[in-house]
User: Which sequence fits this backbone?
């Protein structure tokens, strides 16, 4: 079967997601500075403008208890894992660790890195508004970004000009557009690429130098356009949740006893990361970045419109449902994550009204294959009925 | 393990057209139900160890009550968490559709909500009058192992699991145990001993905490009548009575001839029956099919 | 003829009640009984059984010292408990008595695990105990053995034969049990599941130990110390060698018996 090398490119992306440190160190080998980030609210463009490559800190999925001495038991496993990796010195090679104030669990993981993992003099905590859909938010972000820019200039000993930022914005927007193109394949009934593969390629974007990434992704998309479909989609399932970086779960969705296709993922490791653009060629670059980031699909921890309590994310979800036509929605809810679980309570009645069935899986460090597999299969059985 | 005598005590397999079985390999116990022409003829319930050998043990124990062998069974459906480890199953289906099918078969088309309280997990299933599952809610990790914990608890207070429910119902005043976390509940139980609460009160307290947790799961999913409770813990009146009270919904009366733990296996057997008959009618419908091999 | 006093120690724990009979330094008899709900019954039964083979009658008993979480409950007239000592005192006293070179004792019990450090004179220095979410390790171990259809000894030996490191949730014993059962339902190798169970316990105990600087010469006691798989893995995480005292679950009762006035 001709697949004109698209499999090899996907394999390369997968390999990077499985060997993140090796890849990151190779960038350093080329003379690049690296900044780890723990939350996608960090405006990567400002780092990139200074020639620093942002790489996201993701779970290693190791079952360990030692972080219980640093962070409370009832903090999410993602924060525990990130803290653990810092304490194990897995990320010592980073030149800087940055996070933006988002949720308290990740803030504690960040604190562990700063206080106990040797990142005291190479860390930056960025202020970021919690209620982003409010008038003062944009101004707040602009100021915060300006402080960040000044810190990075001092840190990297480089001036960051407006042109540098504009260039970075364009590179990042290019990534975002390419990713949207990639995800559009999943709209098709017979896609040349599977959902888990798309998730892998997307996750890789958070770990790579965007210029290199864009080149590879352009190639991939070109080849995919000439590829035949892999198979008609089975039951179409959409996933929505937090930082779902365990690709094994997505593989599981497409390896059930029934044919199911993963056709969309709403998470900060997938659609929420890139489904927006920063306005280009504006005179005030930081304001443009603020505007772009405000227009993103909101994270559950930041999504409340004051007064009405409306959730902007739900509008996006409804649009995705219209465009990608899922037969059912799977909530991947990180255990102990309060914003996510509150979000779900509000989202379920909307899905009920739209007539879209849903099921809820509880994420943790480990993937209970039988439990998840059974629940997903049961979900498919209730959607399609049980035929002989 | 309890057994119930069912209708057809002398199954005559020579005359039977359709022999099927459902095997439910649960985390705590494995059950099987054999149907002869749609009628139950043998059942079994054994403790689960490793899933594959437990499935064999379950079906063999049921077969021992018949005059036929595994090879004579036309179609077997495996269900339960160990369903992928049933080598002799023709097909696997999860517990969800099986619960719905079994419940409606036993209690009739008025059933809309099935609460299945198993050894390791519990689920709430919504279904149509035809026995089709339309939605479900599975417990989260914090509410796992309720059924099994009851056995452990019974050991601790040196009572038979079967007595526990009735003992629980004897007290209407008892201290409150944590109902959101079993680990905390366990520790609080030890505090009960220290506070010199009576054994009856401790048992009641534990039942209430477990019932509360189960009822919370059901309430999250919503309970539409008619409502039934199945699974091993449905045999425990301490749990079922309090679940009803907390939910403020009465369940349909249990059927004395059916151990509620067998309903899932029954549902699986009913699917097996449908599938086999469909297979047979498809075969007979095939036009001008060559008779040669 | 040994003219030492006959002493008894009773350690009434969450899961098991242990009784020991000592004459001076000599351990004459011991017995363990499941605590259950009737702690007094259990204590009586343990004491009687411990006395049985010693040929000593109850009247000859000098002091009976009680320890364990239920020590106050067993101070009833029928048992004649003369005094109680806290568990950490009993653990340290017993451990130091049995091994003068030890400086830290880790006690992995049915519901609670703790560690006590002491100096060369046996004087207590520091105590730590698990946090609430890590309760119930011993109970978890027993439950898992039951679930796998094994005795605790069998499960421990089987864990040593594990060839693959399977991952189970670490938050608490309930989530770990959920994952372990899940592995079993997948048909995972029972030795690997047993290994995962042991590693879970080691992880939680080692995490507790980070709250206290560990000395050299660490001894491990308590019911779970009987598991070779657990004791073998503990050094991997604590980065210190450990050794198991003989009759590890009786060390608390021994410590109680000889505490304060007993033969050192």
Assistant:
């Amino acid at each position: 079967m001709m697949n004109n090398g698209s499999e090899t490119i996907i394999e390369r992306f997968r390999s990077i997601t499985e060997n993140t440190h090796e890849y990151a160190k190779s960038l350093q080998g080329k003379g690049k500075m690296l900044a780890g980030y723990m939350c996608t609210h960090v405006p990567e463009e400002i780092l990139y403008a200074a020639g620093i490559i942002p790489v996201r800190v993701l779970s290693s999925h190791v079952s360990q208890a030692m972080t219980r001495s640093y962070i409370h038991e009832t903090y999410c496993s993602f924060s525990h894992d990130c803290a653990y990796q810092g304490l194990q010195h897995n990320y010592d090679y980073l030149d800087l660790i940055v996070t933006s104030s988002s949720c308290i669990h990740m803030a504690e993981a960040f604190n562990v890195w700063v206080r106990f993992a040797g990142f005291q003099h190479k860390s930056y905590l960025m202020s970021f508004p919690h209620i982003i859909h409010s008038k003062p938010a944009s101004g707040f972000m602009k100021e915060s970004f300006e402080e960040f820019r000044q810190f990075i200039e001092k840190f990297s000993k480089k001036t960051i000009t407006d042109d540098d930022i504009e260039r970075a914005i364009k590179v990042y927007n290019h990534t975002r557009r390419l990713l949207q193109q990639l995800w559009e394949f999943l709209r098709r009934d017979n896609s040349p690429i599977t959902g888990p593969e798309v998730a892998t390629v997307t996750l890789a974007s958070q770990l790579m130098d965007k210029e290199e990434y864009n080149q590879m992704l352009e190639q991939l998309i070109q080849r995919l356009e000439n590829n035949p479909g892999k198979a008609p989609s089975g039951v179409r399932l959409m996933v929505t949740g937090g930082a779902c970086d365990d690709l094994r779960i997505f593989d599981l969705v497409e390896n059930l006893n029934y044919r199911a296709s993963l056709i969309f993922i709403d998470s900060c490791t997938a659609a929420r990361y890139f489904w927006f653009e920063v306005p280009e060629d504006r005179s005030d670059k930081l304001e443009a970045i603020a505007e772009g980031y405000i227009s993103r699909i909101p994270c559950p921890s930041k999504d409340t419109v004051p007064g009405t309590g409306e959730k902007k994310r739900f509008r996006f979800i409804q649009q995705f449902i219209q465009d990608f036509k899922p037969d059912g929605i799977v909530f991947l809810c990180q255990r102990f994550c309060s914003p996510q679980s509150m979000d779900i309570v509000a989202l379920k009645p909307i899905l009920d009204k739209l007539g879209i069935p849903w099921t809820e899986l509880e994420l943790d460090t480990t993937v209970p294959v039988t439990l998840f597999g059974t629940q997903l299969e049961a979900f498919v059985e209730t959607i399609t009925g049980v035929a002989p | 393990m309890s057994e119930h005598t069912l209708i057809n005590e002398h199954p005559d397999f020579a005359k039977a057209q359709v022999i099927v079985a459902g095997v439910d390999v649960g985390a705590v116990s494995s059950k099987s139900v054999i149907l002869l022409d749609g009628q139950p003829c043998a059942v079994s319930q054994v403790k689960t160890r490793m899933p594959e050998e437990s499935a064999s043990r379950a079906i063999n124990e049921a077969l021992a009550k018949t005059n036929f062998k595994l090879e004579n069974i036309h179609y077997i459906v495996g269900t339960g968490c160990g369903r992928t480890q049933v080598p002799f199953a023709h097909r696997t289906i999860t517990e969800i559709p099986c619960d719905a099918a079994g419940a409606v078969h036993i209690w009739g088309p008025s059933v809309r909500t099935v609460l299945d309280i198993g050894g390791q997990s519990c689920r709430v299933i919504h279904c149509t009058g035809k026995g089709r599952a339309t939605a479900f809610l599975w417990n989260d990790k914090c509410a796992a192992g309720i059924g099994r914990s009851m056995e452990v608890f019974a050991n601790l207070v040196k009572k038979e699991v079967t007595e526990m429910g009735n003992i629980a119902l004897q007290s209407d005043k008892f201290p409150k145990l944590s109902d959101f976390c079993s680990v905390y509940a366990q520790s609080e139980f030890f505090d009960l001993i220290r506070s010199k609460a009576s054994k009856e009160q401790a048992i009641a307290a534990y039942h209430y905490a477990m019932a509360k947790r189960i009822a919370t799961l059901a309430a999250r999913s919503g309970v539409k009548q008619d409502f039934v409770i199945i699974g091993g813990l449905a045999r425990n009146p301490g749990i079922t009575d309090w679940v009803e009270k907390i939910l403020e919904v009465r369940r349909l009366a249990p059927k004395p001839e059916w151990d509620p733990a067998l309903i899932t296996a029954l549902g699986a057997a009913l699917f097996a029956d449908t599938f086999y008959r469909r297979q047979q009618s498809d075969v007979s419908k095939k036009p001008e099919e060559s008779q040669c091999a | 003829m040994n003219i030492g006093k006959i002493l008894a120690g009773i350690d009434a724990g969450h899961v098991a009640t242990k009784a020991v009979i000592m004459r001076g330094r000599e351990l004459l008899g011991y017995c363990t009984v499941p605590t259950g709900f009737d702690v007094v019954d259990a204590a009586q039964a343990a004491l009687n059984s411990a006395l049985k083979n010693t040929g000593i009658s109850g009247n000859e008993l000098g002091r009976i010292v009680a320890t364990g979480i239920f020590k106050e409950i067993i101070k009833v007239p029928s048992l004649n408990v003369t005094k109680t000592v806290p568990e950490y005192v009993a653990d340290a006293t017993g451990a130091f008595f049995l091994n003068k070179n030890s400086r830290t004792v880790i006690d992995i019990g049915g519901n609670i695990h703790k560690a006590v450090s002491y100096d060369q004179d046996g004087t207590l220095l520091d105590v730590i105990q698990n946090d609430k979410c890590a309760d119930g390790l011993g109970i978890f171990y027993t439950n898992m053995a039951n679930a796998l259809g094994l005795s605790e000894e069998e499960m421990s030996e089987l864990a040593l034969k594990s060839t693959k490191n399977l991952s189970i949730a670490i938050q608490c014993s309930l989530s770990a049990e959920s994952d372990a059962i899940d592995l079993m339902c997948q048909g995972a190798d029972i030795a690997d599941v047993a290994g995962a169970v042991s590693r879970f316990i080691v992880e939680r105990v080692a995490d507790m130990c980070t709250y206290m600087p560990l000395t050299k010469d660490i001894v491990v006691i308590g019911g779970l110390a009987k598991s070779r798989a657990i004791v073998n893995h503990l050094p991997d995480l604590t980065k210190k060698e450990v050794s198991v005292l003989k009759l590890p679950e009786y060390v608390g009762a021994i410590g109680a018996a000889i505490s304060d006035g007993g033969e050192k």
In short: The mean pLDDT of chain A is 95. The first strand of chain A starts at residue 33 and ends at 37.
